[in-house]
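Entry 14. Two folds queued back to back today. First construct below, sequence then C-alpha cells.
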Amino acid sequence: MKLRIVFILALINLWGRKLRSTLTIGGIAIGIAAIVFLLSLAYGLQNVITKGIADFQSYKVIDVNPIKSSAFHLNNGAIEKIKDFSNIKKVEGITNFAGQAKTEESDAYTETVIYGASRDYLALATVRPTKGQYYDDTKKEAIVNKSLLKLANISEDKALGQQVKLSLEINKSKAPNQKHEIEKVEDSVTIVGILSDEGNPVMYLPMDFFRSKGVEVYQQLKVEAASSDKETIGNIRKNIETLGFKTQSVLDTISQVDQFFAIIRIILSLFGLIAVIVAALGMFNTLTVSLLERTREIGIMKVIGASSKDVWTTFLAESFIMSLIGGLFGIFVGWLIGFGLNMLLINLAKSTGNEMVAIFYIPINLMLLSMIVSVSLAFITGFYPAMRASKISALEAIRYE
C-alpha cells in the first residue's frame, strides 16, 4: 500500500472519531505547550540576566591582574608583551592613589580616591559620564562622581568647568608594594564630566598625568580582543597567564549563569514532561480502544490484500498525525501565551517608566526539540497498538465479529 493511501486512510479514521481524536490532540498540545512555556521562561530570564551583566562589547574585554606572590608587575613592558599576542586590539591600564581635592571656594580638602586611566580604559570599563564628557588624555581634566561633589560642597549644576586643587602622594616605584619612591604632588584640574555613582568619592584623571610624574606600574589592565569568540578569548587568556598574571572575563560569569539555567531548564522540563506523559497515556488509550473497535475492519483489510505491514503503518500514521497536529498547536499556544505576557509586561513598564524587558524567549532549537518530543511520542505510544493490530489474523477477526 502506498504511503499516500496510508495517510489518507489514517485521516479518514481520525475524522470518523472526531471527539476522541480532538481530545487526544488537545492533550498532546497542552503537554507541548507546557514545555514550551516553561522553557521559554527560563531562556527569557537567562537573556535578561546575561544582558544585565554586560553588553556585547564587554564580551571582548579581559581583565588582567597581578598575582600578589609573583615577581611580575603590570608595567609598560607587560603591556608591550601582551600587545604582541595575536587577536589583541587594545591594552589599557589603570592606577590609583589616595588623595585630597578642594575647590577655590572650599577651605578644607576632601579625601578621595584618584584613578589614573585613559579615556579608552574608561570606555572598556563602561565608566560613562552622565553629565559632561570624557576628558582629553593630553589635558589636565577630570571626571568625578556625585559623592565627591557633595562632600566638597560643589553644586552639580555648576561643577562642569570648575577648577579643583589636588594633593596626593604618588608611588613611583617599579613595584606597587614598594614605598621608597614617594613624591607629593599638588596640581589643579578642570572637571569635565560627572558620574552618577554615589558610593565612595572618586576622581578620574588622564593616565598621561601620572606618566608625566614617573608612574610606570598599573593596578589592572583591560585587554580588548579582536573577537568575542570564546576560543579566541580563551587563547588570549592562556597567553597572558603564561606571563605570570591572572585573568578574568565576563564570559566566566556568563558561563556560571548558563550552568545555573541549564539546571533550571532540566527541572522545568520535568514538570512539562508530566503533562506530556499524561498526553501519551491518553493517546495510548485512544489507539488501544480504536484497535478493539476495528478488529473486523482489520480482518477485512487483510482479506482484500492488505499486509500486516500496511496495518502496522496505518495505526502508526494515525499516531503520527495526532502527535504532529498536537505538537504544532502546542508550540503555537506556548508562543502565544509567552508573547501575550511579554506585551503585558512591556506596556506595564512603559506606563511606570521602568526598563522594558521580555522575560519569554523561544529559540528555534526549543521549537525543534518540542517537535522531536511530539513525534517521538507518536512512535512510543503507537508502536504497541500498531504491532498488535498487525498480528491480528484475518479469519479469526471476522469469526470474532
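Second construct, same run, same settings:
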Amino acid sequence: MPRLAAFNDAVKTLDESVARAKAAERLGYESVWLTQLPNARDAALVLAEYAHATQRVGFGTGILPIYTRHPTAMVQMAATLDELSGGRFILGIGISHKVTVESMWGLRLDSPVDAMREYLDILRTSLRDGGCSIDGKYFSAHWAYSGPRRAEMPIMISALNPRMLDLAGEMADGVILWMCSPAYIRDHVIPAVTAGRRKAGKDLEGFEIVAAVPVCLTSDRAGGQEVFRQTVERYSNLPYYRKMMDASGFASQLAAGEVSEAMLDELSGIGDERHVRGAISRYREAGVTLPGAGPFGGHKGAAGFEATLEAAVNG
C-alpha cells in the first residue's frame, strides 16, 4: 500500500475518536493526525489514548498552536507521548491565527516566522541536549529535562506562505499543509522548502510534505460539495489562508464572494471511490510525500469516516 495518513476531526465521544484511530491502523494507514481546535478536547491527551489503543500506527498533531504551550512544556508533552507510544509520535506545531491568539487568548502575535524560529530552536536543542539556555525576543528557556527523550523525534510545522515555508525547510523535518491546492504545492511550497533546505546544507531527501486532503465518499456529491464550500468560505476569511488562496489563482472568485465547483474539485475529493482516490493521486503527483485523507460528512449521503478511509486506501 502506498504511504497514506488519516486526519481525524472533533467527534462527539472519545470512544468514537479512538475507534477511528483503530480503524486507520486496521486499514494499513501509516499514521493518524489530530488537530487541536480551540473548542475541542486536548489533542495530546486524546493521542495518549490512541497510543494505548493501538500497536503499530504512528500519530501526530496537525497541529498544536505554539502560543498555548511554552516550548519547555511542549518538550515535556512531546517526549512523554513519544515515550509511552514506543517512539510513534510526530510533533506538528503552528502559529494559529491573529484572531485566535489575540482575541481569544489575549496574547500578542508579532513576527510569526521569527517567533517560530525561536520556538523551534528551544525544541531542537532541548530534545538533543536534554535542556538549553536560550534567550530570545519571543521565547526564552533556561532549563533541563531529565526524562527519556528521542533526539530525532520528527518536528514539523504548519506553513502556508513563503517565509514560513522557507523556515520549515531550514529547521523542521517536514511541513503540514491544509487547504493548499496541488498546483500551489507544486509551484510555491516545494520551491520554498527546497530553498530552506539548501540553507541548512540539505536536499529534500527525508523531508516530509504532509497535506490533509478533504475527502468524502458520498452518494450525494452536491450535498458534500455544499458542506465543503462552507469550510472553504470560512478559511478564506482568515488572512493567512486568503493570501495563499489568492496566490493559488482563486483571487477573482473569492473577491466576488464565489467558491466554484472547479475550486472545490481542486481542493478535495467528493463523490464515489473514483473521486476520493483521484484527489489523493493529484496530491501525490504534485509532490506530497504523505497525503492525509481527511474524511468529512455533514450531509445525508455521506458514507462515513471508515468507509471513506477504505475508499482512499488505493489512491
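Quick look at the second one. Residues 112-129 form the longest helix (18 residues). Residues 159-290 form a domain with the TIM Barrel fold (CATH 3.20.20.30).
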